């Protein structure tokens, strides 16, 4: 599927569409039997905070929001302690809260999102991208592997241990 996609900062006007996409993702995780995102996080307050801090980004397909993600520069306190080792200790982009609209699920949109994030990271002159995911998030684990991310170990987030990955960009 060769469609025009664009990564842009989320605007406050996008919050309802983003929240609807996150709710779909929460339900899909539940249907998959996952414990991830089943405790009230993320929520509308999370989305509004991401947008206010400039962390919220959307991947659009012909101006329609297909994927949401939070991109945070050099700041994830949980990443300072890892059971394992990061590939680098330079500047990094953290990817959190990736959620796909059900209408676009299974169409490679998260892979396109990661392509855009890599371009964004390179353009900022930042060394790497770090991301974590739940052990049972098979779809995300497969995407990270296919995009060349290296498993680095485990990090402890508020709701439990996560598998941590990094990819050197420059």
Automatic annotation (TrEMBL):
Pfam families: Acetyltransf_1. Residues 5-166 form the N-acetyltransferase domain. Keywords: Transferase. It comes from the Bacteria. GO terms for molecular function: acyltransferase activity, transferring groups other than amino-acyl groups. The keyword Transferase applies. The keyword Lyase does not apply. This is GCN5 family acetyltransferase. It comes from Chryseobacterium angstadtii.
